[in-house]
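User: Before I run my own analysis I want an independent prediction to cross-check against. Here's the chain; please return only the structure tokens and, at the end, one sentence I can use as a sanity check.
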Amino acid sequence: KLLAYCSLNAEHNTNRIALTKPICEEIFKGLEIPYQSIRNSAAKLVKEKVLIPLGSATYRVNPKYYWRGNSNEIHS
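Assistant: Structure tokens:
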């Protein structure tokens, strides 16, 4: 569920997604996933290299798995 959320809400042409506490609380309300489960899922997706950490609770969805934007921007 978290990967689907990240893919659908990733920033266009960068695939960046912020998973700050307020955003995780929004995910909790929408998907009924506890905050700690969201953090655990994010850690697992990082370990599997699906999410690439950028710092400060910001990630990039690995374009190998999903890309939101123009194909000519995929490697920028």
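Sanity check: The mean pLDDT is 89.
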